[in-house]
Design goal:
alpha+beta; Hypothetical protein af1432; Beta-Lactamase; Alpha-Beta Plaits; 25 helices; 16 strands; disordered C terminus
Length: about 750
């Protein structure tokens, strides 16, 4: 059966269109309905005050002393009061075209104005709900007719008015239960009010559905004639609309003013005159209203009970929800499908606007709403509490700024940054990002004197994986290894693919011992993994570990870790090798001990800047191998060698010896190695090897001695040498050494 749903009980279901009328036939009705709807746009403007004043005048003249009932309904829910006034005006125009007595026509008009008066008794959470009602809420809404009759029985002396309101919800064919009349036995006023009421409800916006066109609304009435509505009255109503004989504009309202102002019949009501409201309009109201309506950002005002007081045009454009459908409704984040930063729906308990009302603190968040086209829309939501003097709270304002274009731009920037810093295959950092982070790490940790370490790792015999299982299997092995590194790194660490099958991990605030344990953990985990791409086989990797040392540069720490990796491969692969003592030692102290053995060096006639003796518990040939790494990493040049005496030249271009804005300072370093054998204090132990290295650091150019930072740079160079040789400063007396001049 073709049925219409009463307003505010549930969303209207679509009906088949039969006997459509043209839009031109309803243009007059549309004019007044749109005009009256403007009162719902709470703008604080002069137009709003004039509309309210007009309503007050019409209702007071029509209801006389009973206008207080209508004012109470408007205070409870202004949209319902405005709807009731439209229905009353429509029934007045229609009654003028029918052969009805003056008394019956008056009773129809009054019943139309008060047919929804019972909504005063409907709970706010039902009446103000912005979206669809559930079954329980719809039943509570249906009880408003009963509430209305209870209210009117105490003050209305006309049985006809009560009957018109009682039978307005009844269906013409009697299919709706709860009524003892049907068909022509229903009061004529009830049948007329039901048609105008349904027509106005269908042509008014709701949050959950847009207003029907006038053409479709008329077709719905015709489609439900004979079931819900009196078929003869529906045809008559449509015919009168088509003939423009029903006037639902200011002229129909003027009839009340012209014909009833003087008589002001109060026969149905008890006398209780009331002073009308103050409708004065200030200039500030006009400016504020114009500003709010012209803003490009959506603006929503709510009171302390979360009732929506304002919904400007920009909010309509953003959400696709009209102000007339939400004003006086209760605010709910589900109304605009508000989602948080993680794309999760925001519940009523977590609503930031409600928190602004409760706490009195404002907030700004990037949220998303459902746009007018149904797509998700990013907005910058600014919640601002409205607090008066002495902390009195009046509600809050919500500003919605369309951030969709900004978010798209931000996403593009993030995408470009990801492409510039991320390895496309393994999704870890690429070499360029590693170089940048390593440089920042060295500078910041040296400045703080904090430890950090480097792990360089390389998949063992990676070429055999490609040869035996294919390049796709090789790619999957790389991805699997990178994932393992990411899973086992800690917060603040960086995993990067340096190139090919070589990966690097920067371990912030980590010393050698901790980093070596982590590398061993990774090695064992990788060794135990079985890979489907390798037919269930596993593969291994070799690891080199080193810790940042005073005097290090990004190049020196990486080269030292790389040498540790090469040593791990030389020792048979699938192992961890650690090089370097770390940053735990202090800077070497200057020695005042004379160095008569430098007198033979004709190439450095000037006195030394720093000199000290280093002790290494290793044979000379092992110390020489460590010294090769120091020379290679710092780009030094071997100037002369004779027996155990070595002269090194540094051009000063290394980052270790200069800052980016400083001019270079060349240094000369003279090393004298003395191999000794000492006896252990433990009688059961063998003798241990001891190498003494006497070091002298001097500026190559005499004029550089005037530089303020000369000693500091020399100390950095000396400490770097000490770190490479893994020494402790000697507390032994060393005899001066003499030898022929170096060639």
């Amino acid at each position: 059966m073709h049925r219409m749903v009463r307003p505010r009980t549930a969303p209207e279901t679509p009906f088949s269109s039969t006997s459509p009328t043209t839009d031109a036939q309803l243009s007059t009705l549309s004019t007044l309905l749109n005009c009256l709807d403007e009162v719902q746009c709470v703008q604080g403007s002069g137009a709003r005050h004039r509309n309210v004043a007009r309503q007050n005048e019409l209702v007071q003249v029509r209801l006389g002393m009973a206008n207080s009932l209508f004012l109470a309904l408007r205070a409870k829910h202004a949209p319902t009061a405005t709807h009731s006034l439209r229905v009353g005006l429509g029934c007045t125009s229609w009654a003028m075209q029918k052969d009805l007595s003056r008394e019956e026509s008056d009773h129809i008009q009054i019943a139309a104005l008060l047919h929804d008066i019972g909504k005063i008794g409907v709970p706010d959470h039902v009446l103000l709900k912005p979206n669809q009602l559930n079954v329980e809420e719809a039943l509570a809404m249906d009880r408003h007719r009963e509430f209305g009759l209870q209210i009117l029985r105490g003050c209305c002396a006309s049985p006809s008015v009560l009957d018109f309101i009682r039978y307005t919800p009844a269906w013409f064919d009697g299919s709706k239960r709860g009524f003892d009349r049907q068909g022509a036995h229903l009061p004529i006023g009830s049948r007329m009010i039901a048609i105008v009421d349904a027509f106005d409800s269908m042509t008014t916006d709701r949050v959950y559905r847009a207003a029907m066109s006038q053409k479709r609304a008329t077709a719905e009435l015709l489609g439900c004639s004979g079931t819900q509505f009196d078929p003869n009255l529906v045809v008559e109503f449509c015919h009168l609309l088509n003939a423009h004989e029903i006037q639902l504009d200011a002229q129909s309202g003027q009839i009340w003013l012209d014909t009833l102002r003087d008589t002001n019949d109060h026969s149905m009501w008890r006398l209780n005159d009331a002073e009308g409201p103050d409708n004065s309009v200030s200039v500030n109201d006009l400016f504020h209203g114009k500003l709010l309506e012209s803003m490009h950002d959506g603006v929503v005002f709510v009171d302390t009970e979360s009732k929506i007081l304002l919904w400007n045009r920009a909010a309509e454009r953003l959400t696709g929800i009209t102000n007339r459908s939400v004003l006086e409704r209760r605010w709910d984040p589900e109304l605009i499908e508000l989602w948080d930063e993680e794309k999760n729906p925001i519940t009523t308990n977590d609503c930031p606007l409600a928190k602004a009302v409760m706490t009195g603190t404002q907030s700004l968040r990037r949220l998303t709403v459902k746009g007018h086209n149904g797509n998700r829309l990013a907005v910058d939501a600014h919640m601002v509490p409205v607090v008066g003097q002495e902390g009195a709270r009046f509600g809050a304002a919500l500003l919605l700024h369309d951030a969709s274009s900004k978010e798209v731009l931000e996403e593009r920037v993030v995408t470009l940054h990801r492409k510039a810093t991320q390895d496309p295959l393994t999704k870890v950092a690429n070499r360029a990002e590693f170089d940048r982070c390593l440089n920042e790490m060295v500078v910041s940790h040296l400045a703080r004197g904090a430890a950090c370490s480097l792990i360089v790792c390389d998949i063992d015999r990676f070429k055999s994986i490609n040869d035996n299982f294919g390049h796709q299997a090789g790619d999957e092995a790389l991805v699997s290894f990178a994932k393992l590194l990411r899973n086992l790194c800690t917060t603040g660490d960086l995993v990067a693919r340096y190139g090919g099958e070589e990966f690097i991990m920067i371990c912030a605030d980590s010393v050698n011992a901790t980093t070596t344990e982590k590398a061993e953990e990774i090695r064992l985990a990788l060794q135990c993994m079985r890979h489907p791409c390798l037919n269930g086989h596993s593969f291994t990797a070799s690891f080199g570990v080193t810790e940042l040392q005073l005097g290090d540069t990004p190049e020196t720490i990486f080269n030292r870790a790389d040498r540790a990796l090469l040593k791990a491969k030389d020792l048979g692969r699938n192992r961890v090798v650690q090089l370097g003592p770390g940053i735990s030692g202090g800077l070497p102290e200057e020695s005042d001990r004379p160095t008569p053995w430098f007198s033979w060096l004709q190439k450095t006639p000037q006195t030394s800047l720093l000199e000290t003796t280093l002790r290494i518990t290793l044979p000379v040939h092992v110390a020489v191998e460590k010294l090769k790494g120091f020379v290679a990493d710092h780009g030094a040049k071997i100037d002369a060698v004779e027996e155990n005496k070595i002269s090194l030249l540094f051009d000063g271009h290394s980052n270790l010896l200069r800052r980016g804005s400083d001019r270079p300072i060349p240094f000369q370093v003279i090393l004298d190695l003395d191999d000794r054998e000492t006896k252990s204090t433990n009688l059961n132990s063998l003798a241990e090897h001891l190498t003494l290295v006497h070091v002298c650091v001097s500026p190559k150019r005499q004029r550089d001695r005037r530089r303020n930072d000369l000693v500091e740079r020399a100390k950095q160079l000396l400490f770097s040498l000490k770190a490479y040789l893994m020494d402790h400063e000697s507390d032994l007396e060393t005899e001066p050494l003499s030898s022929p001049t170096m060639q």
